[in-house]
Amino acid sequence: PNYVFEFAEGNKDLKDLLGGKGANLAEMTNLGLPVPPGFTITTDACRHYLAHGRLPDGLDAEIDEKLRSLEKSMGKRLGQADDPLLVSVRSGAKFSMPGMMETVLNIGLNDDSVRGLAAQAGDDRFAWDSYRRLIQMFGKTVQGIEGELFEDAIDDVKQAKGVRNDLDLDADDYKALVDRFKAIVREATGAEFPADPRTQMRLAVNAVFDSWNAPRAVLYRRQERIPTDLGTAVNVCAMVFGNLGMDSGTGVAFTRDPATGQQGIYGDYLQNAQGEDVVAGVRNTVPLADLERVDAAAYAELLHIMETLENHYRDLCDIEFTIERGKLWMLQTRVGKRTAAAAFRIANQLVDQGVITLAEAVSRVTGDQLAQLMFPRFDHAAERHRLGSGMNASPGAAVGKAVFDSYTAIKWSRSGEDVILCRRETNPDDLEGMISATGILTSRGGKTSHAAVVARGMGKTCVCGAEELDIDTKNRRLTAPGGEVIEEGDVISIDGTSGEVFLGEVPVVASPVVRYFDGEVDPASDEADELVRNVHRFMQYSDAARRMNVRANADNAEDAARARRMGAQGIGLCRTEHMFLGDRRQLVERLILADTEKEQDESLAALLPLQRDDFWGVFEAMDGLPVTVRLLDPPLHEFLPDITELSVRVAVAEARGEKQEGDLRLLQAVHKLHEQNPMLGLRGVRLGLVVPGLFTMQVRAIAQAAADRIKAGGRPRPEIMIPLVGTVQELEIIRDESLRVLREVGAEFGVELDFPIGTMIELPRAALTAGQIAENAEFFSFGTNDLTQTVWGFSRDDVEASFFSAYLERGVFGVSPFESIDVDGVGRLIKIAVEEGRAARPGIKLGICGEHGGDPWSVRFFHQVGLDYVSCSPFRVPVARLEAGRAAA
Ligand code: ADP
Ligand code: MG
Ligand code: MG
Question: Looking at 317, 422, 574, 849, which residue is catalytic?
Fold first, then answer.
């Protein structure tokens, strides 16, 4: 097989094989854009390397062959002493992982060729700068040497010379640095810096392959659910030089503003600089528009190329480019990351411009992005103490304690604190800290800096380049221009939408998107801003496209009404346990403590009208739509006082010589009902079978409320749901009782009460015997919370605090199975139950309630296995609607 392809041999659709960068370099090459020539070593080679620990046979020869042809086209050989060809060795996986993988520039330089390069360019400073960069990058990424050692050496040289800017260093300074860098390498590795160009290249290629498994790459993949076995490609690309003087430079750009989606180009440029300088915040960049003054011709060509790329990719592109003595070179492009608001705006604009269809547009926005648009914003009307501002890199309103290093960010966030990570600039080592922070604030770097790019990718609030704020990471403090000093632990608020930074906690208000969903903003009115109109358009499309219904989990009339405004098509889970708390607790206590049947009946009789009123309100709010009422689920002792508190009370009373009959009885009952594993104990249907009259009282309340609604002209559609069923026999008993009650109440009121009775599928046994259970159930609702608990044997209330962070850290899973459905395990059981349930009772209604109903990724899965609806919290209803539409489109 071929493992190496020249750029001209590939195209943008070969991302699996060539990686994103390689595929797009190929595409640009074939579009006739000025791309330095080069070749791509495929992901096949990487996978082979990762699997066998060595490169595939024949790869070296193939690389040699492509290298020879590159040398031929360039008219010089790699590292040739008098006129060296230099190359970059660049990683590039299928999915872009900003800053994750390593790139080495200027390969081919050594003590001989550096002189040839200097002579050819007529510029000593440039040649030695390039050489020191090679040793620095090679040392850091290939040889694993602490990057700070090199940076400190640069600082030393600058200090000795009394300068701060790298532009003030001359050829001799760089020559001296090369010596120092070589010494650093010698000390760290015990060997000389490899002088042979082909060896440099070989080691760099291996290092790129190895970096696939670098911890921060592993972490990023897990976060983003990128498969672990894809591997990366390696691109070898002839060097072009932005560090050849002030008529040279390097830049990054977007074809639209990635923060807002506004049309118009956007980017940063840095004169006399190479590669990463522009994103690393080495010097302050200038806005791309300023390039017009510096080099009008190159600027014009760049604009033209950006237009070509946008038209070609039909989407926002980001690019990397370099200008070498007035000549423009394209080094990278890809469909760029963007904020949620920008994603909605751009997709809409492209529809309006006739570039893409509405269906395509909807496929380009995600439920997660919609969720972000629903986050609250800072209240502009509130009194705010402004500390300063930077660039609005990634929107949102974040409040938290200021921390100045990633370690503290991780530590504090683990103990439940919201933190704002304040750094001068971030680098890939900060990734974990950035993940754990609520917001990110930097004082250097533009919208294309590492902090900005990564934050946008994660949907995290970020203000970057707040130069007026002095962030002193050594002393862990931030000083504002007004003189305010923020120490570690002080609370600040950052507004990623405006770029402002405030002292203390700024109050927040609902986002306009939520106000729209809530029915407060008419999308057709003037009050609706562009974002609201965009969201409305996409929601309409999704609602028409989706097959699944979306219901809400709501327990009271108020939530039900809100859910309905948010577009819920019914209630998928109406819990009844909340109806037993508060004032009613005493009634429940009496029920549990009852010695005689009479006492028991009395308590039930007292609860009945209260329950009836609860249901009445919910049925009214959801008139005409189904309401799935779950009969009482949690263990009874949850309704009794805390065992320790009660014991103390009884003991104190005894010591005082008082006798508290009631408390004593209560304590006995609490003891009797105490369970080691309440979640696996007396709850759900088990309770219904053991406490006589409890479930029938609930069914009676439902039936009476419904009958009453019918008489009042309403259209109540209750569905009665039995929780925690493990075997069809349990269900059968409760079902018969329930049907009897429905008939009785129907006769009493003179109406027909024909309501479906079904069950939750939340135990593995229920899923595995779904065929039998379906004979007695008119619907299934997958209780994925409990199903996840019982399939994994995880106690949800315990594991998240005790060991989940370790599991996530060690990569057992990338995201908690309670957050996103575990497709392989829990999902498989759902599939079995769906198939066998449908086989036994065609037309059985299938839904899911539980956290997963509002998780975009899980919603897709539920669509795929053929559920009829998902049910989630009212606030997630729009997210589920959009995602169900995307899944069906
Ligand atoms: P990343 O994926 O981290 O952006 P890249 O491989 O794109 O890594 O390269 C890092 C930096 O080096 C980028 O700024 C890129 O434009 C620059 N670069 C890469 N190859 C070359 C080259 N052949 N000539 C000049 N600059 C290059
Ligand atoms: Mg790049
Ligand atoms: Mg449950």
Answer: 849
